[in-house]
């Protein structure tokens, strides 16, 4: 099979981790007889430096003409980079919002799975994690606060800023359908997370999700308030299968879920829309604090490449081969520094972790 893959290395650790994912993809191509053709584009701070904007329309067109897009991460040091103190549409993160919007990606899937081998790196007590957990967060990606109206103005001599949170029925319905479809192939439970005791947008969310659930009688629906969900994630993570939630709640909860797996460096993600074209990226950011030091964990990006093979290219066998290789390398005791413990056989750098996974 011949596939066109757009690569977006981005900023910070992005180029290092995408490089390792490509190493693994090339091994897959060799072994299974595929041809992956890569086109690299700029997004984020590197694109601002080159073109003055975080993502050009030409770059988006290249993504649209490909089968899938693999992204590292974008952005500099928060509060302390040459890309920080500028208009919102000229910040690196604006590239992320633009690409999601332009490619029509409204569903962000973030699995949070506890590897047996990483229980030592998990900050939760052993009695909480003894049965493990395996959940997937389905986060709405193109609505809510991050896409609302915003304004900063002076009122009565004082600066005042405003952001608005809006959802319509159709936006809620399409993401709810994705969540129920995914749950149907898993443990058949959807936990819809909102703040319906306070927000009108959450009340509408709850109403539309309940309507959608009528078409999925084999899937259990539970509603949970977001603050309770934040607690439940650390008290009893094993209760969750699919967590369905809006944009900002999903952003925060998925970072929390990632930490209880041991490291944000382990978590992949997929962003999907109505077509097969998807965007695949690690859940973490550009980690400027460790960029260029060969310390970054490439596993989240490598597992994102596996999700890409599965969801956009229908290469399930190949995706499983990558997942198994990751598990094998972990079981052999190799760790990057973020997931190391005193029982680690060898702490390895970004490049060696990529080599080991490719070799397996
Ligand atoms: P971050 O995820 O980049 O880093 C948080 C912490 O986790 C840091 O201590 C970092 O060293 C560590 N970390 C992250 N990825 C790791 C990996 N693969 N291996 C080992 N350790 C890892 O989040 P932070 O610091 O809040 O943001 C840094 C920049 O990234 C900002 O400019 C932010 O806007 C951007 N960002 C970009 C995202 C994207 O491109 N999708 C998502 C989140 C943040
Ligand atoms: Mg985040």
UniProtKB/TrEMBL annotation:
Cell location: Cytoplasm
Chief localisation class: cytoplasm
Highest taxon, organism lineage: Bacteria
Family annotation (InterPro entries): IsoCit/isopropylmalate_DH_CS, IsoPropMal-DH-like_dom, Isopropylmalate_DH
Site (Important for catalysis): 146, 195
Positions contributing to substrate binding: 100, 110, 139, 227
Binding locations of Mg(2+): 227, 251, 255
GO biological process: L-leucine biosynthetic process
Record-listed E.C. numbers: 1.1.1.85
Keywords: Amino-acid biosynthesis, Branched-chain amino acid biosynthesis, Cytoplasm, Leucine biosynthesis, Magnesium, Manganese, Metal-binding, NAD, Oxidoreductase
SMART domains to which the protein is assigned, alphabetical: Iso_dh
Pathway terms, separated by semicolons: Amino-acid biosynthesis; L-leucine biosynthesis; L-leucine from 3-methyl-2-oxobutanoate: step 3/4
Family: Belongs to the isocitrate and isopropylmalate dehydrogenases family. LeuB type 1 subfamily.
Quaternary context: Homodimer.
Chain's role: Catalyzes the oxidation of 3-carboxy-2-hydroxy-4-methylpentanoate (3-isopropylmalate) to 3-carboxy-4-methyl-2-oxopentanoate. The product decarboxylates to 4-methyl-2 oxopentanoate.
Protein name listed in UniProt: 3-isopropylmalate dehydrogenase
Gene name tied to this protein: leuB
